[in-house]
Amino acid sequence: MAALRTGVFRLAVSTMHCRPGVFRKYSAGPLYQYILVDRKGHNQNVGFIQLNRTKALNALSDGLMAEINQALDVFEADPQIGAIVITGSEKAFAAGADIKEMQNRTFQECYGGSFLSHWNRISTLKKPVVAAVNGFALGGGCELAMMCDIIYAGEKAQFGQPEILIGTIPGAGGTQRLTRAVGKSLAMEMILTGDRINAQEAKEAGLVSRVYPVDKVVDEAITCGEKIANNSKIIVSMAKEAVNGAFELSLSEGNRLEKRLFHSTFATDDRKEGMTAFLEKRKANFNDQ
Ligand code: CO8
């Protein structure tokens, strides 16, 4: 089991080297230069993405974000995959948008080209995503983690929105998602000073749900992904949609959405199977229909 879950080594030996710096996970699979992609879990039903620009602390370049989107699209379309884990290295989940890439951009280029508009694919997925965060999750890195559905942190993780220190502000949801997660006072403090919070503070503030030792956080995220993936995929998507409604809608609208989705579960085989299995005292055998 440990071997199945030890991402880096297994990826390193199973990845085909195509040309310098370019890796192909499967012989017919897509090419990835900046990320490592795998399937994890006993049933291989957890998609796994590891940011792999370690020397630049996984700074989020356009190329890296395009590859994340590509891998997410593949997992979203794969009926076997029920959840996705995204992680970085022990030193950095991601230290933010690539400052070298941004340095000389003009307003006209940013506005005219809708700079960063394609960077939120992760927040539009139907399948749940668990972020396993070690090290720095700063700027766009913190925003990327917050686009995920669940955040697990390693004990040495640090979260921050330091854009103010380089003369800009968060641009991928940081002012909105951080404020919803930790409340106005702490979000303001972090965004206006650029100060970071550690894993324990992030847990206390509700930004992350669990903190684990550095070398355990990825395995724990995969275990969480497996638990989710072993449930009915269609029902999981409905539950995710309902929870996300809490961030978009008024209480009465959110409750209405929840009720509609709850009613909709009665149109599925899996709702019937789940309740029948309970009454027959056996494990449910979901078929995602
Ligand atoms: N962009 C580009 N390169 C980076 C970045 C970055 N964000 N962060 C680190 N690097 C590079 C460094 O330039 C350095 O490269 P080199 O070796 O070639 O000089 C290498 O990574 C190692 O970095 P350090 O030597 O600085 O490592 P330290 O351990 O001393 O410091 C820190 C680590 C504290 C993380 C430090 O690197 C740092 O402060 N980084 C910048 C953090 C930051 O300001 N992030 C916010 C960027 S702006 C942003 O994210 C806007 C969000 C827009 C939306 C994004 C959508 C997802």
Number of helices: 13
The CATH topology name of the largest domain reads 2-enoyl-CoA Hydratase, Chain A, domain 1
Structurally, the number of domains stands at 2
The parts where pLDDT drops under 50 for at least 5 residues are 1-28
Distance between the termini: 29 Å
Question: What small molecules does this complex bind?
Answer: octanoyl-coenzyme A
DSSP, total strands: 13
Which structural class best describes the helix and strand composition? alpha/beta
Q: Beta-strand level of the residues, as a percent range?
A: 15-25%
The main sheet comes to: 6 strands, mixed
- Principal-axis shape equals globular
Helix content: 40-55%
Radius of gyration: 20 Å
Reported CATH architecture of the largest domain = Alpha-Beta Complex
Q: Taking strands numbered 1, 2, ... along the chain, how are they ordered across the largest sheet?
A: 4-5-6-8-10-13
CATH class of the largest domain equals Alpha Beta
Going by CATH, the homologous superfamily of the largest domain would be 2-enoyl-CoA Hydratase, Chain A, domain 1
Order of helices and strands: HHEEEEEHEEHHEEHEEHHEHEHHHH
Mean pLDDT across every amino acid position: 91
Task: Describe the structure in your own words.
This protein is an alpha/beta fold and 289 residues long. The protein folds into two domains: 11-229, Alpha-Beta Complex (2-enoyl-CoA Hydratase, Chain A, domain 1), CATH 3.90.226; 233-279, Lyase 2-enoyl-coa Hydratase, Chain  A, domain 2 (Orthogonal Bundle). It is built from 13 helices and 13 strands. The strands form three sheets. It has a six-stranded mixed sheet with strand order 4-5-6-8-10-13, sandwiched between helices. Strands 7-9-11-12 form a four-stranded mixed sheet. It has a three-stranded antiparallel sheet with strand order 1-2-3, with no helix packed on it. The longest helix is centred in the N-terminal third of the chain and has 16 residues, at 62-77. It is globular. The two termini are 29 Å apart. 38% of the residues are buried. Bound molecules: octanoyl-coenzyme A. Octanoyl-coenzyme A (CO8) binds next to helix 4, strand 9 and helix 6. The site of octanoyl-coenzyme A has 24 residues, from helix 4, strand 9 and helix 6.
